[in-house]
Automatic annotation (TrEMBL):
Domain named DUF7920: residues: 1-28
Organism: Trypanosoma rangeli SC58
InterPro entries assigned: DUF7920 (IPR057680), P-loop_NTPase (IPR027417)
SUPFAM superfamilies: P-loop containing nucleoside triphosphate hydrolases (SSF52540)
UniProt name for this protein: DUF7920 domain-containing protein
Length: 200
């Protein structure tokens, strides 16, 4: 694993799995999967570091000094440039993982060349609308007949409506068959929270 310094040059290379490699992966997970940036990202990393044994923490001193700010700024750059938003889909997130190093290099070049962008990245904090939630888009209830899937789904549907959301409840038994049941899930333009129940 390797990364860049302020000038966009490689600052460290880990050829074998190490504590630093594990922290790089943890930060990547926080940025890509949990879509964290700014203070929330720093807080997540600080909690992770604080939970490590003292001798491991000492080993990570260089990593923390050279990489943490770079990764926080990289997360901010992804947001500022629109490469990652609260609505980035799974394919977009997978693309971020695939291009992780190339995007960091691109970030370093862009930030070095543009003082305004550098200022935005250094001082970036996500707004309330930019913060992603980990709420599911689809809830699927699967189980044997009579175990309460439909009852649970009806109750969840009612609660989501009371919360001001626009859920879509689809019951395979009432839909008429598998194809009719799956049709609403294929509608890509629908952004409603969905609940469903299915009997196998």
């Amino acid at each position: 694993m390797y990364g860049y310094g302020g000038a966009g040059v490689v600052v460290r290379m880990w050829r074998l799995r190490s504590h630093a490699f594990a922290m790089e992966r943890a930060v990547q997970e926080a940025i890509v999967t949990h879509r964290l940036s700014g203070a929330a990202l720093r807080s997540r990393v600080a909690r992770r570091l604080a939970g490590l044994p003292r001798e491991v923490r000492r080993c990570l001193g260089d990593w923390e000094a050279t990489r943490l700010d770079c990764l926080v700024q990289f997360a901010a750059w992804l947001r500022v440039t629109g490469r990652q938003t609260a609505r980035t889909d799974l394919g977009g997130l997978q693309d971020l993982r695939r291009r992780w190093i190339a995007l960091q290099n691109q970030c370093a070049q862009c930030v070095a060349a543009d003082a305004r962008l550098r200022s935005l990245v250094v001082h970036y904090e996500p707004s309330a609308g930019d913060v992603a939630t980990s709420d599911p888009d689809v809830v699927v209830c699967v189980g044997p007949q009579g175990c309460g899937k439909s009852t649970f789904s009806r109750a969840l549907y009612a609660l989501l409506r009371q919360a001001g959301l626009s859920p879509c409840w689809v019951n395979q038994d009432e839909a008429g068959g598998r194809r009719q049941f799956l049709t609403p899930f294929g509608a890509r333009n629908t952004k409603a929270t969905r609940t469903s129940s299915s009997t196998r």
